[in-house]
Amino acid sequence: MISPVYAITDRERSGISSAAEIARVFLDAGIRTVQLREKSLPDGRLLGEVTAAAGLAREAGTRLIVNDRVDLAKIAGCGVHLGEDDMTSSAARTILGEGATIGVSTHDLDAARRAFASAEVDYVAFGPVFASAVKAARPAAGLEALARVAREKTKPLVAIGGISLEALDEVWSAGADSAAMISALNGPDAAVRAERAVAIARRRFLPRKIWLVGFMGSGKTTIGRILAARLDRPFFDLDAEIERTSGKTVRAIFESEGEPEFRRRESVFVEGSLAIPAGVFATGGGTFAAEGNRSRILKDGVTVFLDPPFEALAARAPAKGDRPLFDDAAQARRLLEERLPFYRMARLSLSLSGAETPEDVADEVLRKLEEQSCVI
Length: 376
What we know:
Number of helices: 17
Radius of gyration: 25 Å
Distance between the termini: 5 Å
CATH topology of the largest domain: TIM Barrel
Structural class: alpha/beta
Number of domains: 2
Order of helices and strands: EHHEHEHEHEHEHEHEHEHEHHHEHEHHEH
Shape: elongated
CATH superfamily of the largest domain: Aldolase class I
């Protein structure tokens, strides 16, 4: 997939001697499209760098693209990006076959139109959008020119040239699906820069509302807080909100007023949450099992089912004395089996071992969300 952030390696600016190692930094930060751009290495060493970087991308389930060199892309099994003076896209397609990604550079509207019309091209790059130290000989086209190209796009459009982290939102707003960056990402602090770019993209492109569902003890509250912090969105815990507004614990409500009253309050909160424009929501264990709640939540945002093994759930739940429906492990297992068909109606599911850290689980949630939010 061509992701909203498209990183291009630069050994000189990054201070890292290995292009493959720069690619690793970008991939570890969460960037899902990386181009290896290298003009000075001898072919033998360059082949080793491309092959190593392509292996890293495959391990991460992401995409590596090599600049100019169709021959190296063929050997390494990766994509290629072609400039105006490189091999034609039709010749590259003949060599690489149908599965390889091919992108081309364009610098004016007519060239972009031809690239959009080409059956061999998967994405079209346009620029430089801003003044670029890498392409200093070309004048900046500007955001208006980018917007004109975007209005005619029939394939993913990658903006390139002088794009800073601060300019990402306006580049995407002009119609680019992805922003290719060199100077803005390569430096001694490349990892920090890449993480900032990923955070900006997540806040813009990931769903505005995320609902975490699952059984008691699955980590919805802990994971939800981490996700909300990373996405800079408010966090809501349904059980905590009910306790706050009622002045009673969940257990106290169950004991004094009964489960039907608790479920009524739960549904009231779900209904009221529809007016909240953005946020991460941790549901109670039974929230999603109720048809009315479930239909509202499924329409309101993306649902994520956190699914650790029962042994992990059983080990966590008794540690808290506020679980009114957890009398013993056998009773809890029966309840879980009743609710599993409903949990599995969530849009996304994460099968967990129970040994992951909350940060690791949050990373996996974000990765799954990104897979659904990428351009292609």
